[in-house]
Amino acid sequence: MSDVALRLDVLKTYKLYVGGKFPRSESGRVYEVTDSKGQWLANAPLGTRKDTRDAVVAARAAVKGWSGTTAYNRGQVLYRVAEMLQGRREQFIAEVATAEGLGAKKAAALVDAAIDRWVWYAGWTDKVAQVAGNANPVAGPYFNLSTPEPTGVVGVLAPQAGHGFSFLGLVSVIAPVIATGNTVVVAAATDAPLPALSLGEVLATSDLPGGVVNVLSGRTADIAPTLASHQDVNGIDLTGAIQPDGPGAAAALEAAAAETLKRVLRPAADPAAADWTEAPGTKRLTSFLETKTVWHPMGI
User: How far apart are CA 289 and CA 94, in angstroms?
Assistant: First the structure.
């Protein structure tokens, strides 16, 4: 018998991505990730409230540096991430295909669309101010300028698995938030977290500073209430809220977010019907921006 026949596969241990590092869940717990046929794929860390709070601390620490980076430089960093995603294209195709029961051709098209979308948002970093800002007309010897600024720390509930959007949907909700200078704590899709955890590995070896993106896997219903009620989270995207009622429901999360005056991006009326292949537009780019208006006297 050949040596090849005796070889055992090296099974991968997935971890959270928090603050540029790869910690295990503080509870030490994992859960089984299966493919579309129920076959075991991997064990993913089961994120807890403590993990969520740690991720918020990391995201807050990264706000000053990331928001203070020039928009042009942010675009360069994001483009570098796209280059690395392209280099690991085959891995993401395999993860999307096995997790959601898609053929290789369909999975490849969705991964390519996700990489293209990341590039698209990278190009917006130094252009969004021209769209969202304005020189306001005033009657007097002064300028009145409105400029967009990042909101701060944003919690993101990634779209749940379905129709192959575990990766394309993930990129579509993360990229616009960090392109505008915010930092992110993202709760990956519960049933298909592997593309998100692999994205963390890409980000760790790119030029993106640690803490700008933090990836948690586990039950969205466990992670979401902590993000919604946390006083150091400035905004929350409820796209991936999944429970019809209870603490993980969109309405309950929105009520919790209102207690701390967060910006809230509501989920679609029917999240399952969302088509992430459609042109994204600028809605998500401007959802987590604040407008600062400055009055400046004219020289005489």
Answer: 35
- DSSP class of residue 246 equals S
Cα-Cα-Cα-Cα torsion 198, 45, 254, 56, nearest 10 degrees, comes to -80
- The residue to which tokens 């993980």 are assigned: 248
Q: Which two tokens stand for residue 30?
A: 């994992």
The residue with tokens 């603490």 is 247
- Nearest Cα to Cα of residue 67 among 16, 125, 116: 125
Tens digit of pLDDT for each residue in 201-210? 999 999 999 9
Cα distances (Å, whole numbers) of residue 189 to 33, 63, 133, 167, 260: 11, 25, 34, 9, 25
What is the per-residue pLDDT for 135?
85
pLDDT in tens, 223-248: 999 999 999 999 999 998 876 666 66
Both structure tokens of 104: 């290789």
